[in-house]
Design brief:
Length: about 280
């Protein structure tokens, strides 16, 4: 885990000596959301594809998908600092950015609500927004407290849940252990029926052979009404006919990003899981 104090010693001094505010490129939706929440919008000169969905970032140049960044597009923006999430790459591109003279700070991923504070402190430290960072952390911690209060007193077994992610081309993947979705299902007070495998697995009827979930969580971007969607899912079409199976639609960046909006997004899911 990067320590903000260490990063300050090596980067903040160099950035503060520049005549103008550092030009920033951000990659990773949570990283961009945090930077915007810290008041850094005027300094952000480009974002990755996911960052364009963040408020105020839609007109920024797109430097590519966070895992497949392009050096040419980033360097064309003449950044002083590149802030990226832990999955950013490829490594060769990050190396090119460093070689060109820009600082690169990788913000580690984490599948815990407590990791959000570390992300905020790291970004606040390297951009000279420590005071703003602490205020944002207070807001996030208040939201986390509200979530934990909402899930602390539930009777009986946790509702069973499956999270379905739509890949490019429309193929659905079910989320197993060691995924952001699994962590968020647990944080929201649900039980992931796909916890017997790691990562994401292509959806098939066999996944529902043993257990039919009480809820299906999907991105709000998936088209069609809930009944149409369920009828199209292998293994769920027949079981959903009675209307007992319910769909919860979420903003992927908020629910899975482990950024400032994640605790409140989880609280909304927690409330939906407990609706009669």
């Amino acid at each position: 885990m990067l320590r903000p104090a260490t990063i300050l010693a090596f980067l903040l001094c160099a950035l503060s000596t520049r005549a103008e505010a550092p030009r920033l490129v951000t990659a990773g939706s949570a990283v961009t959301e945090i930077a915007v929440a810290l008041g850094l919008t005027p300094q952000i000169v480009a974002v990755d594809t996911s960052g364009q969905a963040v408020e105020g970032m839609g007109d920024k140049p797109d430097v590519g998908y966070v895992r497949m960044l392009g050096a040419e597009g980033i360097l064309a923006q003449k950044p002083d600092l590149l802030l990226v999430s832990g999955e950013a790459g490829p490594p060769s591109v990050l190396g090119q950015i460093r070689a060109a003279g820009a600082d690169v700070v990788i913000i580690p991923n984490g599948y815990s609500l407590d990791d959000i504070d570390d992300k905020i402190r790291t970004i606040a430290a390297v951009t000279g927004r420590v005071e703003e960072g602490e205020k944002l952390i207070m807001k996030v911690e208040s939201d986390v407290h509200a979530l934990r209060a909402a899930t602390a007193n539930h009777d009986g077994e946790r509702p069973s849940v499956v999270f379905l992610l739509a890949r490019h081309g429309g193929n659905l993947m079910a989320a197993g252990r060691e995924t952001a979705a699994h962590a968020m299902i647990q944080a929201s007070g649900g039980r992931n029926i796909c916890a017997d495998f790691n990562g994401y697995k292509p959806l098939s009827a066999e996944i529902f052979a043993v257990t039919t979930p009480d809820f299906v969580i999907v991105s709000e971007s998936i088209g069609g009404d809930d009944a149409q969607f369920l009828a199209s899912v292998p293994g769920l079409g027949a079981s959903s006919a009675g209307g007992g199976l319910r769909v919860i639609r979420v903003d992927d960046a908020a629910f899975l990003g482990f950024g400032p909006r994640t605790p409140s997004a989880a609280t909304q899911v927690a409330a939906a899981l407990r609706q009669p």
